[in-house]
């Protein structure tokens, strides 16, 4: 298992544990906020990478 997969698995387990605790208490914990921010940052980074690669590939096509 790669390091990235292990980190994601750890974060996902922490997120799930935090959600279970939040359901019992009815409040949002700092862990939930941090996990949400981390997932949002990851999604933005992946989106930017994909966009960049697609744009580079499109610009490298010889259409003439």
Short note summarizing the structure:
The chain has helices at about 5-25, 30-60.
Give the topology.
Blueprint: H1 3-25, H2 30-60
Helix pairs in contact: 1-2
What do you see in this structure?
With 64 residues, the chain is an all-alpha fold. It has one domain (3-60). It has helices at 3-25, 30-60. α1 (3-25) packs across α2. The longest helix is centred in the C-terminal third of the chain and has 31 residues, at 30-60. The protein is elongated, with a radius of gyration of 18 Å. The mean pLDDT is 85.
Give the count of structural domains. Answer: 1
Strand content: under 5%
Helix vs. strand class = mainly alpha
Shape: elongated
> What is the residue-mean pLDDT, rounded to a whole number?
85
Low-confidence stretches: none
Number of DSSP strands? 0
How much helix is in the residues? Answer: over 70%
| Series of H and E elements | HH
Distance between the termini: 45 Å
* Largest sheet data: none
CA-based gyration radius:
18 Å
Figure out the total of helices.
2
For this entry, give a set of tags.
64 residues; mainly alpha
